[in-house]
Amino acid sequence: MRNRIYRSLAVSCFVAILTLGLASSGFSGSARASADDLQVGQTVAIEGKSSGARIIHASEIEIQQEPSEEKLKGRIQNIDGGAHSLVVLGTRVFAAPDAQIAARDGSTIPFSSLQKGWMVKARGSLQGEGALHASEIKVSREEAPDEAEVEGRIQSIDKTRSTMTVTGLTIRLTPTTKIKFD
């Protein structure tokens, strides 16, 4: 009987120590990863700061298990009403004729009302010429001016320069970039 109590107590202590260790390590359901876990063809979600045309300094990278549509989030840098396109993070974004363009509250916004400097999140498919053909564009005006988000497949990796290419954008990794699995 006494041995069972000691074993039960030992197991309880082990579980408590393991739980405290995981909590203090920042583990919160997503497994940590490193730059060595990044591979061409993987789908990743990146948060960071835009730094000039087509360059993002990544603060966080999440390796996705399921592929998804490409996404870009950044400020509108240019608008071409005739071509029905925007430039976001240095990437041309074509709004499909049936693209849903909406504000945060869900209200529809006509393409002609979009303005340079507005924050948008575009979702669609990347075409061969490096342009995003958007099926959906969400508009917001409240984020930080250099905030950027990208979701797409890794096209190339340059470990010597600590960069990778995702949706045609150069993603710079730093020693503080957090990388994790979905």
Protein described:
With about 180 residues, the chain is mainly beta. The protein has two domains: about 1-30; about 35-180, Beta Barrel (OB fold (Dihydrolipoamide Acetyltransferase, E2P)), CATH 2.40.50. Helix content is about 15%, strand content about 50%. It contains one helix and eleven strands; from the N terminus they run αβββββββββββ. It has one helix at about 1-25, and strands at about 45-50, 55-65, 70-80, 85-90, 90-105, 120-125, 130-140, 145-160, 165, 170, 180. Strands 1, 2, 3, 4, 5, 6, 7, 8, 9, 10 and 11 form an eleven-stranded mixed β-sheet that branches. The longest helix is centred in the N-terminal third of the chain and has 23 residues, at about 1-25. It starts with a helix and ends with a strand.
Features:
2 domains; 13% helix; mainly beta; 11 strands; 182 residues; 11-stranded mixed β-sheet; OB fold (Dihydrolipoamide Acetyltransferase, E2P)
